[in-house]
Design goal:
The chain contains 2 helices and no strands. It is mainly α and about 50 residues long. The chain has one domain.
């Protein structure tokens, strides 16, 4: 298993743990909104620097 695959697994695990933490703290809505804003920003930056 390469380092990139390991890193990808760790990032996915961190995302899942963040979701679990948000559910525990009752902040699921805020997390969803922030994820959507992050994706939109990433897409916009990708289009800008193509």
């Amino acid at each position: 298993m390469g380092i990139n695959k390991t890193r990808g697994i760790l990032y996915r695990l961190a995302k899942i743990l963040g979701d679990i933490n948000a559910v525990k703290r009752g902040r699921v809505g805020k997390r969803i909104v922030r994820r959507m804003v992050g994706r939109a920003t990433g897409r916009g930056m990708g289009r800008l620097f193509r």
